[in-house]
User: Fold these one by one.
Assistant:
Number 1:
Amino acid sequence: MTDEDAVLLYVGGPLDGRVEVREARHGAPLPVVTHTHLHDGPKVVHVYDLHPLTPAAGVYHLRPAEVPVDQSPAAR
């Protein structure tokens, strides 16, 4: 790890607690990361938004599920 690499922490969802070191040669951390989980059922997609702390550190927070109004439990 160099002084220019970024340390990124994931909060929430299946990546909760994961720490990633993004090497500076890969550029700045992405503002949004999508994680797709494949299993026996339908695929599950989780979206994480980056919240920078410093130029070399940030936290990816799980984006709240976006449920269309006509499919929310209260609309039924």
Note: Strands lie at 6-11, 19-22, 32-37, 44-54, 57-62.
Number 2:
Amino acid sequence: MAEDKNKNRTTVEIYGQRYVIAGTETSSHIHLVADKVDLKMREIQSHNRFLDTKQLAVLTAVNTMSEYLKIKEELKKLQQRIGKEEG
């Protein structure tokens, strides 16, 4: 229960549905994330109007994870390059 006191609860809307997100991030951060998810869902839906919400959510998650892994790999390469330049 002590952990719950440190959590912020923020209501957001993603793809027409309201969600209460609990976490330690600021409300503005949670809203930013929700806005990005909503935007990505709408972007994917615009290319295929026959997807149901569940399919759309999964494709959004897959696309987002792919982008995350690419960025993570790029960060790793940059960190290695910086390490070589300093060494």
Note: The mean pLDDT is 93.
Number 3:
Amino acid sequence: MSRMQTSAPARHPDQTGEDGPEGRWTTYPGVPVDTRRQLLAKLAWTSIWALYLAYPVQDLTTGQHTPAASAAGAVALAVFLACYLSLIVIRNHPGFRQAKRYLPLAAMALIAVTTSYTLGEAWLTLFTYTSVCAAVILPGRLGLVGVLATTGVFAVVGLTSRSDTETLVSIGLPCLMAGLAMLAMQRLVATMRELREARAAVAHLAASEERLRLARDLHDLLGHSLSLIAIKGELTGRLMDAGKAEAARAQVADIEQVARQSLADVRSAVSGFRRPTLPVELAAARTALAASQIELDADPRLAEDRPGLGSEESGVLAWALREAVTNVVRHGAGATRCAVHLDETWEEDGRYAVLEVVDNGAGPGKSAAGNGLSGLGERLAQVGGRLETAAANRGKGFRLRALVPLRPGPSGE
């Protein structure tokens, strides 16, 4: 099930091996850290913001403090940075109790207050880090309280230490705004997590509903047929005991006919169960693409009944959606967005429904289509449709179009 590939292999977070859960470095907002590599990557990104500690470092190197004060300031700054980075580890480690998560935050606040009073206004910058960490560590509305409290303490310390107004404004505004921005980011991350869980639940419910439909169909089909076979079997036994061979033979023929019809009904029900549907495949696509950190832009009409689209043609389009999404996940190197749209078009021989799936990955390579696309083309040909594949806009990405004929009339029956 491969598509035309480029020379570079696809790299997605859900794959095993070098890019799998044990080897990938990439981590995303709202996604738990699973490996040491991801934790190191997160620490590296977080350490970039430590560049703003250049003001306290510059204050220590100017020589305006005694050697003892400079040494104490360096130790305090190192402890502050260690607490700042340790919060990343603690937050991503479920083994730490909630109370222990507050200890580094309290230490950061204490160091910020002490150094601002003893070493000067350059150390007021530490309050910005404390505000951000309070927004991240404190749960719920306590995060907002923590940000406002940190900003309030900063204002008190700045005013009582007689810092100039320009310094108070230039540090106070980032202290407040960075904390509020981090609160908004936390809310966004929580919403993303809830959306992933909701998508997984929708896919699970869709599959459960299909199983219940199959169970109802089998109960209705087999209940009636097996009851009829049992009754005719008893009647056949009585006729044989009475020596009425011709009548018994007729009942046996009826039993054979009922059994054959039951077998055909069961095969039809099972094939209907095995045939994918567009709503189910759309829910599965959301889950698969979300796990690969690919944004899905889906046409809401995919979940609606389309006039003229028969069940067989709809099933083939569902297969096309499944194959296209699988190709994006497995072979769409660098893809961050996948668009799925369902539309209609007029051809010379009639009206067609068109399912189009486009990603913004590396695009098709020079190799031939794999078994997955070949099989999909055969499925479409069986219902009178066709498959079209090509590079997307300006050669970037991959475009798959599946066309199936629409039946005349107001419904697809």
Note: Residues 1-26 have pLDDT under 50 and may be disordered.
